[in-house]
Structure formats: structure tokens, C-alpha cells
């Protein structure tokens, strides 16, 4: 059997697809696997912030269309890029073990810490969530919109003489570029995107590969992903607003970090709650609704 995996064409997207293929090969060596590269709207339009490109499917729509048409059997995405609701006729099948979900700072000019940045330093990011949390940490920073894959952003930091950029640690580690990380943000400093570090294994509903994938998924990583995406769903998150969550599960307890703001960053709420795992759905839903009410009251 030949299984076709749909992926974006960046080095990171291909590395992530190969991670999934390696897991499948270990479990099902009798099958063949190939990657089909699909270019998305988010890959084509690099001169505008994400929130100006479109509401849904910036990095996913073309790949989801290929799933629905049967052109591919499985799509591998970064789950943080996925809308809060899976496309009609499609489904997610858990995730493999997650990578480090923290955001990190890559600094230029020999600097190593956020505190080392000079007054008015220029930091690149294409994310409202990162930009607004950065400004909360250092309101003197100048945020420069920067788009593109990991390698492109690292190159732009040099070519545009930025003082630094913010990236997901997961992507750098999957590309063996962890040595480029100057410092990690704690969850108190910067709440990561919902399900950052998790891979989305997306298939057409009822597809035969569902059974194959279910044997390579990681239960703890899948639960963490589902709790964070529950928060995203309840606040009706999109690329237009800063939103993030991190669920740290230990024994039967969840330590949950969340951030939510309005479109222009005038109101930004960051919070941390700890609650029993068996009550997590209620706690996260309640927290999300309360945070959304507070934001809506200021809009």
C-alpha cells in the first residue's frame, strides 16, 4: 500500500512529515510512504501580516481540499496553525509526542537575554500574540512584522539588522537549530499558541489510515493538545486576536496558562490556574468564557 502525505514545502513542514513517516514505518514497514508538497495561501503571500490575508485556512485550505478529493491520504500540519474547528468531512487523529511548546528569543549583535536589549530595540514577529506579550514585558520595544519560514526569518534578522526575532522552540529543535536560541520565555512571560509543538494528523472522515495512525499517537500529548484547543474553541480564537494556552499535565493535575486579548492589544489578559485533571473541561470552558466576557466588555 502506498500512503501519500500532504505537506507544505518548507524544511520544517517536511521534517515534521518525515517524523510521522518514521513512526509509521516502524509500526507498518510493509507499506510505502511519499510526501506530496502543496503550496498554501499563507506560503504565497508573505508581504502582509497573517490577520490581513484571510480568516480561515491560511496554511491549510489547499491541503484540506487535497484530502477531500482523495489526492492525499494524510495531512501533517503544525496544530497551532489549525482553525479551532476541523474542516467539514475531515478529522484529527491525535498527535505523536509533542516537542517543546515554548516561544524563544533569537538575538542579534551578540546579545543573549531580553534584559540585554537596548531601549527601543527592534524585534521581529508576525504574531499578534507574541507582539502584544512582548510589549507587556518591554513597552519600549519596536515590533517589526516579519513573515516566512524559519530560515527566512533568521536571514531577515540579519539582512534587516533586527535586534532579534521570536520563534517557536519546537520548530528550531525539529530543524536541529536549537543552538540558535538565545533564551526561552517562561509561561509567565509569554503564553505559547494553543497546541504549539503538537502535530496535527488530519484525515478524511472514515479513511482507512485512521486505524494505522491510532497506533502511533501519544495519549498524553493528545490530551494536552485537546485541552488547549478547547480553550481556543471557547474564545472563538483566530489570527485576528492574540490567544494562547499551555496545559502542563502532571499526575492528576493540570497547570493551565492562558492569554487572550483584543485585536489592537489595548486589553490583554494573562492568567494561570491549577485544577484537577478530571475537572479540566469544565474549568477551561469557564475560564475561557470569563476571559472572553472581560475582553468583550472593553471592545
Characterise the protein shown here.
The protein is of the alpha/beta class. The chain has three domains: 2-95 and 198-217, 3-Layer(aba) Sandwich (D-Maltodextrin-Binding Protein, domain 2); 103-184, D-Maltodextrin-Binding Protein, domain 2, CATH 3.40.190; 234-298, Double Stranded RNA Binding Domain (2-Layer Sandwich), CATH 3.30.160.40. Helices cover 32% and strands 23% of the residues. It has helices at residues 11-27, 41-44, 61-69, 128-137, 150-159, 169-174, 209-214, 219-234, 280-298; strands at 2-7, 32-37, 74-78, 90-92, 103-107, 122-124, 142-144, 164-168, 183-184, 199-204, 243-250, 253-261, 268-276. The strands form three sheets. Strands 2-1-3-10-4 form a five-stranded mixed β-sheet, with helices on both faces. The longest helix has 19 residues, at 280-298. The radius of gyration is 19 Å and the shape is globular.
What labels describe this entry?
alpha/beta, 299 residues, D-Maltodextrin-Binding Protein, domain 2, Double Stranded RNA Binding Domain, 32% helix
* Span between termini: 54 Å
* Number of separate helices: 9
- Please tell me the overall pLDDT: 92
| Integer tally of domains | 3
Q: Name the structural class.
A: alpha/beta
Second-tier CATH architecture of the largest domain: 3-Layer(aba) Sandwich
CATH class identity of the largest domain? Alpha Beta
The largest sheet, given as strand count, sense and whether it forms a barrel, is:
5 strands, mixed
What is the CATH fold-level name of the largest domain? D-Maltodextrin-Binding Protein, domain 2
Spatial shape? globular
**In which order are the strands of the major sheet placed?**
2-1-3-10-4
C-alpha-based Rg, rounded = 19 Å
